[in-house]
Amino acid sequence: MKLELKKYTAQIEEWPKEGYHIMAQYDDDKIIVYQSYRKEIGEFAVKNQYFGGAFSLERMTWIKPNFLWMMYRNGWGTKEGQEVVLAIHLKRDAFETYLQHAVYSSFNQVEGMTREEWQNEVKSSNVRLQWDPDHDPYGTKLERRAIQIGLRNEFIKTFAKEDILLIEDISDFVAHEYENVKNNTLEKLMIPAEKPLIFKDNELNKMLKIAI
Description:
This protein is α+β, with helices and mostly antiparallel strands.
């Protein structure tokens, strides 16, 4: 596994407690995002290092750079149809391009435009952006916000193949660390090392409401 791991208890001392933050593992070239699928889709992706087979290019797919938020959504890989947990090493510039084309999925998160303007943008956009409450390992809601990004049409096609550097199956790692959650031994819990992502493009930071 190529993920850099760090103790959860050490990381929460460093993480922001509130505000809009893209918590992720990244460097200048790549960013890790997470998805969960049923075996047929997940195993194809790992074997072939792209999304194909039963993976639908016609439906919107959502990517999440925040590991614990993904664990909240997939129940640490225990929910039906989400048993195969994937860590997708994505080109950093592709991830930034997604966000530059993103439109908020709900009007109550929009600033500076009318509902009609927002509705028109939603119709024409192929990237959705959504901020939701982040969660701790037990699934408890936090003040900090976590991001998820929905892709469709040409963006899902580039995401599925050319934007990907590596696809890892981390299901066994997730199951192993979930035991620490169930046993209330968070002092032993290891998760991917994450930190807030801030872009050089200040207009993008402003659009995303990222706390700087």
